[in-house]
Design goal:
Length: 414
């Protein structure tokens, strides 16, 4: 890795198992599921009736009341997680440093709820009833835009939208922005809120979603032989990344160091991963190379682990390709087993989970792992959290279009 050292000084999450870092972390450590029957709309005619909905979210705790109606749900979640990360970091932004603090928070599908709502209004009542705030409600970069305005962040302001790799790409890109001295600190991560008729219906018609409707908490089961698809979730995960010298100068608490970032493309298929795990393999290998570490130094992988037949099998192959015999000594687990797949927010939330694992020496489990799949034969930390020292932990995120991202976190030492 070249350039300045970069550390994590703040965390924020909104997830189906909790609003806030401590609530979510404790639920993950207990192996709790946030998958439930969908309540947002009538699912009686849908083949999929379950999702990881965020429960009890009050946007008024993070956003001025008059502004809430101008923001799609993904922006509201981003504002909440970003506010948490900002507060957790203790970083004070003022005239002397505002131009050196930026934001890079992405989304996968953006303002789908607003699109559905205003298309219905257009059809029923005509164009005059479309809100003048509709466009900024739905476009993906507004999560970053609103966060920059909320905290006066005048540094780099951008957005990543790379499907299910979004959050990881955002964090990796922000890491490199700081390393090359284009900013001293960055809020980075992903947000998503598309549990809607169109969102659920489209993924259901792709046959991508689990139909274990009678047992919602047991539906997301990565690497298990009986997995039958992913469960859609929602929420946001945002981290504060900061140049080490800046963090130390102000006495900031440091959770972990980010030391590597890799990207690649499968160049294979619109939705299916490369069966040989080629793209994912190159992505992980590039991350290790970027960090200058050997495969055997990595202790834990927070897997993409979607609970789909193809992804889990091919990700397992990719891990073996990169780590060889060490793959069988690695701990590998999937946060998605508890919260479902948060699409564009997944990489952000899972980065938070990975950072906390490094900080506390606790690996959160892959729940619902009951029947081993012969083709998925690694140590998936089944059903119960595990306490082990972690030197290096990798977080994987792979998306439609064959886009791949991995970020590597290290236990912080002077």
């Amino acid at each position: 890795m070249q350039g300045r050292r970069v550390v994590v000084t703040g965390l924020g999450v909104v997830t189906p198992v909790g609003i806030g870092v401590e609530e979510s972390w404790q639920a993950w450590c207990r192996g709790e599921s946030g998958i439930r029957q969908i309540t947002r709309f009538d699912v009686s005619d849908f083949p999929v009736k379950i999702a990881g909905e965020v429960v009890g979210f009050d946007p008024g705790l993070y956003i001025e009341k008059k502004e809430i109606k101008k923001m799609d749900l993904f922006i509201q979640y981003a504002m909440a997680a970003g506010t948490m990360a900002m507060k957790d970091s203790g970083l004070q932004v003022n005239g002397s440093n505002a131009e050196q603090v930026g934001v890079l928070v992405g989304c996968g599908l953006g303002g789908l709820p607003s699109i559905e709502r205003y298309h219905h209004i257009l059809e029923a009542e005509g164009y005059r009833k479309i809100s003048p705030f509709f466009i900024p409600m739905m476009i993906g970069n507004m999560a970053s835009g609103y966060l920059s305005m909320r905290f006066g962040l005048k540094g780099p302001n951008s957005c990543v939208s790379t499907a299910c790799a979004t959050g990881a790409h955002a964090i990796g890109d922000a890491f490199k922005i700081i390393a090359r001295e284009d900013a001293d600190a960055m809020l980075a991560g992903g947000a998503e809120g598309v549990i809607t008729p169109l969102g659920i219906g489209a993924f259901a018609n792709m046959r991508a979603l689990s139909t274990r409707n009678d047992e919602p908490p047991r539906a997301s089961r990565p690497f298990d032989r009986d997995r039958d698809g992913f469960v859609m979730g929602e929420g946001a995960g945002v981290v504060m990344l900061e140049a080490l010298d800046c963090a130390k100068a102000r006495g900031a608490r440091i959770y972990a160091e980010i030391v590597g970032y890799g990207m690649s493309s499968d160049a294979y298929h619109v939705t299916m991963p490369d069966p040989k795990g080629d793209g994912a393999s190159r992505c992980m290998a590039r991350t290790l190379k970027d960090a200058g570490v050997r495969p055997e130094e990595v202790d834990y992988i927070n897997a993409h682990g979607t609970s789909t037949p193809y992804n889990d099998k091919f990700e397992t192959i990719a891990i073996k390709n990169v780590f060889g015999e060490h793959a069988y000594k690695l701990a590998v687990s999937s946060t998605k087993s508890m919260i479902g797949h948060l699409l564009g927010a997944a990489g952000g939330v899972e980065a938070v989970a990975t950072v906390l694992s490094v900080k506390h020496g606790i690996i959160t489990p892959t729940i619902n792992y009951e029947n081993p799949d012969p083709e998925c034969d690694l140590d998936y930390v089944p059903n119960e959290a595990r306490r082990i020292p972690i030197r290096l932990a990798l977080s994987n995120s792979f998306g439609f279009g064959g886009t791949n991202a991995s970020v590597l976190f290290k236990r912080y030492t002077e």
